[in-house]
């Protein structure tokens, strides 16, 4: 006799843990640099640094820490119900999906307006919309970053397209939520999402490469200026290492141009039409 088939198990993927950790660590480093620069400047700069660090910290809690807390979730799809976190909920007790509770960042297209696209930003202290599966015996959160969440709904007899609130949320959510793994696509959109994820990683590779070259250029400039300062201290006359200064300046300009153009191409911040990263949504046939 063959072994009895195990029920399907839904769980987060390893890359989602890495992505959440990178967001948390990278964001924490950025906040530390912001505080260092702002507090070092004093005055109004220190005030803005504290304000920015506070808002950034709240954003990191929502996009880094909260996803990490969910990664241990396990959902089993059983013939007569579901087991979520070790608790069994019968199919017959399913009452429906509740939500969304709370605002979210979404992209509005306004064909008749001068500025055609408008991004509505949710407050960074908001955890985002929450959806809950309601059973007679209790409620269970529906984490939309869980691979197979749509399969879970289908197992309970509900399609995400049939729920007005969930459908509106998913079809208006902006690209960073999808591409950073805060939202996992339903099965029918998986291929488009995977292709966009590859493109997103390439975009960030160019951005980091550009800023890395710029950092190297600034390093060369600082070294050259340090050499000139040391020479002036010894002889009383400054001797500028012109080749090093020129090389450092060229590297800095080249790196900023490379990283800046890659960033604008992906995000296009503040220029009326969103970049492809902001506009991406795997559930739309066409993206702006």
Q: What would you say about this model in short?
A:
Helices cover 53% and strands 15% of the residues. The chain is α+β, with helices and mostly antiparallel strands.
Mean pLDDT score, rounded? 84
Number of helices: 8
Helix content: 40-55%
β-sheet strand percentage: 5-15%
Cα distance spanning the termini: 55 Å
Per the principal axes of the C-alpha atoms, what is the gross shape?
elongated
Widest sheet, order of strands: 1-2-3-4
Oligomerization state: single chain
Query: What are the segments in which pLDDT stays under 50 over at least 5 consecutive residues?
Result: none
The chain-level structural class is alpha+beta
Largest sheet: 4 strands, antiparallel
Count of extended strands: 9
Strand and helix order: EHHEEEEEEEEHHHHHH
Q: Compute the gyration radius: what is it?
A: 25 Å
Q: How many domain regions?
A: 3
Keywords: Membrane, Plasmid, Transmembrane, Transmembrane helix
Structure description:
Keywords: Membrane, Plasmid, Transmembrane, Transmembrane helix. The chain crosses the membrane at residues 20-37, 43-61, 203-225, 245-267. The chain contains eight helices and nine strands. It has 288 residues and is α+β, with helices and mostly antiparallel strands. It has three domains: 9-70; 74-187, no CATH class; 192-279. A hairpin with a 2-residue loop joins β2 (74-78) and β3. α1 (14-41) runs antiparallel to α2 and α6 runs antiparallel to α7. It is elongated. 24% of the residues are buried.
Task: Describe the secondary-structure layout.
Elements: E1 9-11, H1 14-41, H2 43-70, E2 74-78, E3 81-84, E4 87-90, E5 94-101, E6 106-109, E7 117-120, E8 130-135, E9 138-141, H3 149-155, H4 164-172, H5 175-179, H6 190-235, H7 242-267, H8 276-279
Helix pairs in contact: 1-2, 6-7
């Amino acid at each position: 006799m063959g072994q009895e088939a195990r029920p399907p198990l839904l769980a987060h993927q390893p890359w989602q843990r890495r992505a959440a950790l990178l967001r948390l660590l990278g964001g924490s480093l950025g906040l530390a640099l912001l505080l260092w620069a702002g507090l070092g400047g004093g005055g109004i700069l220190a005030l803005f640094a504290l304000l920015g660090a506070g808002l950034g910290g709240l954003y990191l809690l929502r996009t880094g820490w909260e996803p990490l807390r969910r990664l241990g979730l396990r959902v089993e799809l059983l013939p007569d119900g579901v087991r979520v976190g070790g608790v069994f909920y019968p199919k017959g007790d399913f009452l429906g999906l509740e939500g969304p509770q709370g605002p979210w960042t979404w992209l509005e297209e306004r064909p008749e307006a001068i500025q055609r696209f408008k991004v509505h930003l949710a407050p960074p202290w908001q955890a985002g919309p929450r959806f809950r599966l309601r059973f007679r015996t209790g409620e269970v959160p529906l984490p939309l970053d869980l691979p197979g969440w749509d399969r879970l709904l289908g197992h309970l007899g509900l399609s995400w397209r049939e729920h007005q609130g969930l459908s509106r949320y998913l079809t208006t959510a902006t690209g960073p939520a999808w591409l950073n793994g805060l939202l996992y696509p339903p099965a029918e959109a998986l291929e488009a999402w995977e292709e966009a994820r590859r493109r997103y990683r390439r975009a960030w590779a160019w951005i980091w490469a550009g800023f890395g070259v710029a950092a190297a250029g600034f390093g060369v400039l600082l070294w050259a200026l340090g050499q000139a300062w040391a020479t002036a201290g010894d002889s009383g006359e400054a001797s500028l290492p012109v080749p090093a200064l020129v090389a450092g300046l060229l590297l800095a300009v080249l790196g900023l141009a490379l990283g800046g153009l890659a960033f604008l191409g992906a995000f296009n911040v503040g220029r009326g039409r969103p970049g492809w990263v902001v506009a991406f949504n795997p559930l739309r046939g066409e993206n702006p």
